[in-house]
Structure to design on (826 residues):
């Protein structure tokens, strides 16, 4: 059984002047492992290898990384889906500063999430029970609330690479629309006013890398389109 | 030592899952200087994996629903060692806590009338078991934990909670009087070790399912809070009680929600027989989790298991149709396709009972205050130490937790702890400062790893630990096997005490974190093992071949594990709810 060739991005700022690619041979015993399993096997060869992981079932969003050129979650990506010529190349998510190996500094990504005020706002006093919402109104949140903040989308977006401080990015905008679309939220006007500049929303060029990589099958480009419509309707 | 930086807070909350974030929210609103210290970014916590929902009598599916019925189910489900005052508190305060979550924005699924959608779950009844199956579990599709955790994180952002994300709590700091006055923690990104001083330290560190080889739990569930409290000398309650729910995906261990059966799915053996009709004629597939899991193991042991090895059974969902699956169980469809290579709309999912939940933990009262016991068997409050969520044993789950009660536990008791601590801080808390030697003793463990020069490494030792627990302390237990397991654990403790951390670097050193986690797994495993060996009866999730019956004369009690002597004592169960008559222990049938 030939071993899987795994090429891993390595960088430890304490010991390495520059990042480099390190080759590992991993014995998969012919199984179609998840990429995360391969990382665990590589870590047994080199204890110092650093990557984030938690739920190992695609819901916590810890192990977003670049696998043979495409962003995704290591824990729910089987080798058969990514492997090219018995070779697996793993790099950190592109466009964010690297802390160590596959661990990136998510600070800019979280800042853009916080910027859109990602919480329900409603000035009216809450009733003694829940606020009512029809199933049709609730359906509008499907495809939006499921985001796991893995950053696969924003770090595959050229507009975000270019302007990470000014362009909210696909993940943040998807969440922005999640609250704009919620029948219980009363801050629509303020939310839109905060986005009304040439960068926050309009830097999206419809490249749709975000849609191609989202491990939850969500569609940030569509959400951004809806925000644009609301901004334009608001302006007229 | 003198160069170590210190931080000071009114309250430090260790753990950023549902319980920790709910406690933090209460304290952030009160303006107290509070921080959440979490080893992962909060939305990566294991609460995110909860699927089916949060059980609570909000009277949506049934306008006549009553929290007392929910309390009855909870006490019965726990095989009568759930504390009745705590169960009363959880079930009666629950609706308030759930409506608050909705007001915060949690995207619950809805009924046509606009109210929160509720589905049937196992062990639920109307009218104290006499009125048939209830539908009491409030759901956001099958992603309720995700929706809940994100909503709580969002509302903490709104209220400017301080977060120490990707910080790892190493050990508790106790002063000369034995009060908990903070902890030692490591900033994972820089490796800096800091003394965190605090008037209230809240353990919201979740479960420890990683002591078993086969578990639904996240890789981070290493029982850090339990390990810290045991090393500090505090007792643990009901640690033999581990839940192995019926439907872990065979081979992968990931859970598929009990909501599958709530929506009408059922289990079949290799003959295609719906075997739960034999074991639980009334509730069938919605009997208590322990009952269903044991029935599955019986089917497998008696040769009616599915697959080549006959070592699992099937969960059948295809008759529900693609529309119901897509609307109510979309996450399950995803998980089945990814991990079982099965489309549940067409084929059944192979499932097997898998370790999922720790009913035991740090004993607390309903305010989250940790409890210890003196030599005469009297309860005392541990000054400065609190616990809530899975790390705590308040106890509302007794010997077996009902599905959907864990999320309710998190928000009700996270909230209660937050409110109580706010009050205590307002009244003024004045404990002795920790001395330099108090801090030094909390530094011992991390110092040992940092100075280790040779020995066995962490991954091998962890594998051995998980193998021991899986082999000797699984769904069915018996004396001889457990005695052997306890002995193997004693040897393992010695090996871990001499283990080696090869990578001593500071920047985001995950190997160091895993080494520190291993110590905690060891503490949890040993407490579990000794408690399981000593409880000589079968109750709830604790099933023994050699003691197959419940023994109310000797064991209608909490177990209490004392780490210094490795001794198991007992503690009275509370049978004194404040507003309702207590529920008498009865034979538990479904």
């Amino acid at each position: 059984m030939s071993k899987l060739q795994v090429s891993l991005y390595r960088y430890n700022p304490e010991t390495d002047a520059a990042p480099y690619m390190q080759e590992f041979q991993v014995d998969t015993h012919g199984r179609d492992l998840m990429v995360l399993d391969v990382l665990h096997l590589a870590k047994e060869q080199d204890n110092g290898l650093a990557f984030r992981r938690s739920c190992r079932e695609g819901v916590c969003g810890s192990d977003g990384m670049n696998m043979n050129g495409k962003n995704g979650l290591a824990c729910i990506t089987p080798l058969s889906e990514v492997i090219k010529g018995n070779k697996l190349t793993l790099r950190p998510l592109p466009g964010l500063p690297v802390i160590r190996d596959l661990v990136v500094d998510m600070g800019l990504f979280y800042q853009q999430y916080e910027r859109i005020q990602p919480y329900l706002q409603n000035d009216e006093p809450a009733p003694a029970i829940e606020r009512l919402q029809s199933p049709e109104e609730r359906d509008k949140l499907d495809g939006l609330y499921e985001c796991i903040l893995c950053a696969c989308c924003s770090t595959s977006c050229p507009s975000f690479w270019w302007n990470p401080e000014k362009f909210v990015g696909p993940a943040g905008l998807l969440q922005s629309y999640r609250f704009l679309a919620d029948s219980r939220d009363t801050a629509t006007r303020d939310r839109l006013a905060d986005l009304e500049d040439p960068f926050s929303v309009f830097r999206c060029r419809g490249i749709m890398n975000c849609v191609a990589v989202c491990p939850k099958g969500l569609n940030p480009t569509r959400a951004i389109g809806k925000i644009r419509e609301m901004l334009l309707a608001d302006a007229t | 030592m003198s160069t170590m930086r210190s931080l000071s807070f009114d309250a430090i909350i260790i753990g950023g899952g549902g319980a920790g974030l709910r406690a933090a929210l209460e304290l952030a609103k009160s303006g107290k200087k509070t921080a959440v210290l979490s080893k992962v970014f909060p939305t990566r916590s294991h609460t995110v994996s909860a699927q089916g929902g949060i059980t609570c009598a909000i009277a949506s599916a049934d306008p006549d629903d009553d929290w007392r019925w929910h309390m009855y189910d909870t006490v019965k489900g726990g095989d009568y060692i759930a504390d009745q005052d705590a169960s009363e508190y959880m079930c009666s305060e629950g609706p308030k806590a759930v409506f608050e979550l909705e007001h915060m924005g949690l995207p619950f699924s809805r009924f046509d009338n606009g109210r929160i959608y509720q589905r049937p779950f196992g062990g639920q009844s109307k009218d104290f078991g006499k009125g048939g199956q209830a539908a009491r579990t409030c759901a956001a599709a099958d992603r309720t934990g995700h929706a809940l955790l994100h909503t709580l994180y969002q509302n903490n952002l709104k209220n400017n909670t301080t977060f120490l994300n990707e910080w790892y709590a190493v050990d508790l700091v106790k002063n000369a009087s034995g009060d908990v006055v903070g902890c030692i923690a490591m900033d994972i990104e820089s490796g800096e070790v800091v003394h965190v001083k605090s008037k209230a330290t809240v353990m919201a560190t979740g479960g420890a399912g990683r002591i078993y080889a086969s578990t639904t739990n996240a890789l981070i569930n290493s029982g850090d809070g339990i390990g810290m409290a045991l090393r500090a000398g505090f007792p643990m309650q009901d640690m033999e009680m581990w839940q192995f729910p019926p439907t872990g995906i065979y081979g992968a261990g990931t859970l598929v929600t009990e909501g599958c059966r709530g929506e009408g799915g059922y289990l079949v053996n290799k003959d295609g027989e719906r075997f739960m009709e034999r074991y639980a004629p009334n509730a069938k597939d919605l009997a208590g989790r322990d009952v269903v899991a044991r029935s599955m193991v019986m089917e497998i042991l008696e040769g009616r298991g599915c697959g080549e090895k006959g070592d699992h059974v099937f969960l059948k969902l295809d008759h529900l149709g693609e529309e119901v699956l897509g609307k109510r169980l979309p996450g399950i469809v995803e998980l089945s396709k990814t991990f079982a290579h099965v489309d549940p709309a067409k084929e059944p999912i192979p499932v097997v009972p898998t370790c999922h939940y720790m009913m035991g933990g740090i004993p607390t009262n309903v305010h989250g205050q940790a409890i210890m016991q003196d030599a005469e068997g009297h309860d005392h409050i541990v000054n400065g130490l609190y616990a809530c969520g899975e790390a705590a044993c308040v106890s509302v789950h007794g010997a077996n937790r009902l599905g959907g009660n864990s999320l309710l536990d998190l928000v009700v008791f996270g909230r209660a702890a937050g409110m109580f601590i706010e009050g205590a801080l307002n009244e003024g808390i004045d404990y002795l400062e920790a001395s330099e030697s108090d801090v030094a003793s909390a530094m011992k463990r991390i110092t040992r790893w940092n100075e280790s020069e040779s020995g066995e490494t962490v991954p091998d030792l962890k594998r051995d630990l998980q193998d021991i627990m899986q082999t000797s302390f699984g769904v069915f237990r018996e004396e001889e096997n457990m005695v052997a397991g306890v002995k193997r654990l004693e040897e393992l403790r010695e090996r871990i005490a001499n283990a080696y951390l090869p990578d001593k670097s500071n920047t985001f050193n995950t190997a160091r974190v895993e080494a520190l986690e291993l110590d905690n797994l060891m503490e949890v495993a040993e407490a579990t093992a000794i408690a399981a060996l000593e409880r000589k009866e079968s109750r709830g999730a604790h099933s023994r071949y050699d003691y197959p019956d419940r023994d109310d004369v000797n064991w209608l009690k909490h177990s209490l594990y004392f780490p210094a002597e490795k001794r198991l004592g007992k503690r009275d169960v509370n049978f004194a709810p404040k507003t309702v008559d207590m529920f008498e222990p009865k034979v538990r049938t479904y």
About this structure: Chain A touches chain B through 55 residues (CB under 8 Å). Residues 112 and 168 of chain A are 5 Å apart (CA to CA).
